[in-house]
Give the backbone structure.
Amino acid sequence: MKVADMHCDTISEILYDRKSDTPKGTALRKNNLHIDLEKMKKGDYLVQNFALFVEMKKRENPFEWCMELADTFYTELAANSDLIAPVRSYDDIIRNMEGGRMSALLTVEEGGTCKGNPAFLRDFYRLGVRMLTLTWNYPNELGFPNRRKEAAYGVPDTENGLTPAGIEFVQEMERLGMIVDVSHLSDAGFYDVAKYSKKPFVASHSNARAVCGNVRNLTDDMLKVLAECGGVTGINYEPSFLHRYEPEEKVYATIAQAVEHIVHIRKVAGCGCIGLGSDFDGIATNHELYDASCLPMLEDALWKAGFGQEQIEGIFYKNVLRVYREVLH
């Protein structure tokens, strides 16, 4: 089964290694991370979104760090052009598939990298970025994150949404042909995006809050609104997003927990809004979905849970490709 994964942090891990005091030579083709090209081939990947993740409080110049990440992305792709190639449109993905290559779609995780300046947004678009996560875990010029308190599962922010600059960015992204990503965004911000969007948007790596109360997940109403807007949420394999663990419990994530989220989302919003967003290389290792080679096991679990061929294809790649076809220019 082909796979379209809307989020991973692998490029950051490669750059961290290169800048470390004892680099291990981590590269995209083969490594000890959750994702490399050999694992992706085993998992039958069609397209992987590679995020340029910027933690604003740790970077003196976030924009420069993002440029270094982008250079790492393109350097790695150039070194592995026999297996994977960058894409900027739905048609590019189809051409790569027909040519026997996987696709890499470039995203930015942290809208604050743009400093509220639409010119930087357009520069990212020219660089090949086709999805932007409006916030990470800190407020920025565009809006507010969901975690209001540093409690184990957070307290949702239902009051602070998009700023005027955030609204402008959503509208400019739609004009350009960039996908708006609401993962990490406050609940109020989510509804602002739904209000001001005319095209489908995504939560690239978020689950169902009714199943696991982490505020990074979406409420049932948010899932319904996302479906009504034609959007997709990507199932995240992070243990604490799949299951609510008590402090004394051993954290042990399972495929069954991921299926539980998928079953719930299907019930409240339909299969059409479900995709995959592993968050690989940005999360704790899931004991069963431990790297990109394991996706056939999730497919098998969905068959056993009573999902049909069309539904599984939608979840694994077709729902995401529909959004790409509708939004990307």
Observations:
- The chain has twelve helices and nine strands.
- The chain has a mean pLDDT of 96.
- The radius of gyration is 18 Å.
